[in-house]
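Hi P.,

Sorry for the delay on this. The queue was packed all week, but I finally got your sequence through. Input first:
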Amino acid sequence: MLDPLAALRTPDDPPCDVYLTGSVFLDIIFTGLDSAPVRGTESWARGMGSSPGGVANMATALARLGLRTSLAAAFGDDMYGEYCWEALEHGEGIDLSLSRTVPGWHSPVTVSMAYEGERTMVSHGHEAPPPEEPAPDVPPPARACVASLQTGAPQEWIAAAARRGSRIFADVGWDESGRWDPADLADLRHCEAFLPNAEEAMRYTRTDCPRAAARKLAELVPLAVVTLGPEGAYAVDGGSGETAEVPAIAVEALDPTGAGDVFMAGFVTGTLAGWPLADRLAFAGLTAALSVQEFGGSLSAPGWAEIAAWWQHIRSFDDQDRAALRRYAFLDALLPGISRPWPLRRAVPTIGFRRS
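Then the structure:
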């Protein structure tokens, strides 16, 4: 596997490139629906897949890009939890030494239904009971941490990790309360980058333009990146004033679940590797575009072999936009010699077949 940080590694590096924490779900994905389910009727999907979800989406995407990834999460004491643990630790090489299996607690589950380029999700789960031994206040040393900002109260571990020298990349979820209180973004003062989607960015900044929202957010965090869906992404460096905008790659989406997580993983990878801002945006958008062509949020994430195959493919046709090809020319220096050591796991209809 290609190591994007190989030229930067030293004997004094922390053992972990990226630390993240959160909830692991078992995702069940239905695709090929002609429309949203209608009350009182039965809908049949033409495709189905199962895979680890939740925070596992981003952890898997990071690991497949060659970053040493540590995940702290609770896993259910059931077959779903056992499957997710095995898929992440043995299948993806993610360090789960800070994770735990909770006796008698069942795994959270999300059913995702994809149609018309979007998806609707139904989830069920209960908060995991606290561990018998409290978790450490400070996460392990890492080059970077990924944090999901929460409404209501700051997360103390974010400030602690930043003081230790970790670079913090943050996203945020949908505010169900509808308040969209900018005070809930207080932890941004400890972060290096904030990557909301356009709707989240505009609601928190009280603007009606995602680019204006990015500029306002850059007053709160060194780097604001707003994803624009099919339009791509826009970024503002609050320190230098540099801006960058990269259009999205047009693909036929099978399942958009987890695309934002894969975008974050691509952006973190490029940032830790020291790439220019526009290259980081382009790479993040590319990884997200490749992911939506497969089932599931985690197991749809591309590895370097998939990225190399895409780059080789688009250069094989004379009808490709020359400007687009120039936009990804930085891949030439990264991809020589990439080979696929084994097929990546993909989401399948069942979590496991019986071995004969």
